[in-house]
Design goal:
251 residues, alpha/beta, BirA Bifunctional Protein, domain 2, 8-stranded mixed beta sheet, 10 helices, globular
């Protein structure tokens, strides 16, 4: 194999910190000694707004605050989503432009979920379906130096109540059928087993060797600075048109 894929699990953490780490890893991949990385993480109950969205168009901010649900703004585009500890999210950050990266990762994910016993699993260009229902969505981009992809896999049902924290027109919109891995398997899968299967499959799909690792002190320091100076601020989250995030943003 040509190289290694770092496998990192940062566990359950606040939303704005998670977003700051995503941004930091995209910037850090430019460093001379940096390597490709797959970071698993989960969120405490939160609503994540797309980078260019107006807050009022995307969520019911007052309801979020009454419920004690954190609001964060992603450094990527796309629409607002609800996340809970039942959603396993991962960032894949690799050097250069990787042809059809989302489709390749979706295919790898489909193989991993099939190996866990889910059937029938179908990959698409930006999602993974089980029995025709969406269980995982993927989005990302290439900024000229770094390819970054983020995916969210529904491990268990998040329940309808938290989805009502989105803006009424979004919450009421009819989207594609959705399922979760627990429902598809008929049992609750072990998170460690799911992550191991995904890490192995994604690394193989990229012709890389999986290598368990942890975030470096420099990566954590960069994430902390981005959190304090930008991503964790109310001005960044609440602003209708925040300034584009500096180098490393996932678009």
């Amino acid at each position: 194999m040509a190289g290694a894929l770092r496998l990192v699990d940062t566990g359950l953490a606040p939303a704005r910190w998670n977003v700051a780490v995503t941004a930091a890893l995209s910037e850090a991949r430019r460093w001379p000694a940096a390597r490709d990385i797959l970071r698993f993480h989960r969120y405490r109950p939160a609503v994540l707004v797309g980078h260019g969205q107006r807050l009022a168009d995307a969520i019911d901010a007052a309801a979020c605050r009454r419920a004690g649900v954190e609001i964060a703004r992603r450094v990527s585009g796309g629409g607002a989503i609800v996340v809970t500890p039942s959603v396993l999210t991962f960032d894949l950050v690799v050097a250069g432009g990787v042809r059809d990266l989302a489709a390749r990762v979706a295919s790898a994910l489909a193989g991993a979920l099939s190996g866990l016993g889910a059937e029938p699993v179908t990959p698409t260009a930006n999602a993974v379906l089980i029995g025709g229902a969406k269980v995982c969505g993927l989005a990302g981009g290439f900024d000229g130096q770094v390819s970054a992809l983020q995916a969210s896999l529904l491990i268990a049902d998040i329940g309808p109540a938290i989805a009502m924290l989105l803006a009424p027109q979004i919450a009421a919109a009819k989207g594609p059928a959705v399922t979760d891995l627990t429902a598809a398997l008929g049992r609750s899968p072990g998170l460690d087993m799911v992550q191991a299967a995904i890490g192995k499959a994604v690394a193989a799909g990229l012709t890389l060797a999986p290598q368990p690792d942890r975030l470096s002190a420099a990566e954590l320091d960069l994430a902390g600075r981005l959190l304090t100076e930008e991503i964790g601020t109310d001005a960044f989250v609440d602003g209708d048109r925040p300034e584009p995030h500096r180098a490393g943003a996932v678009r």
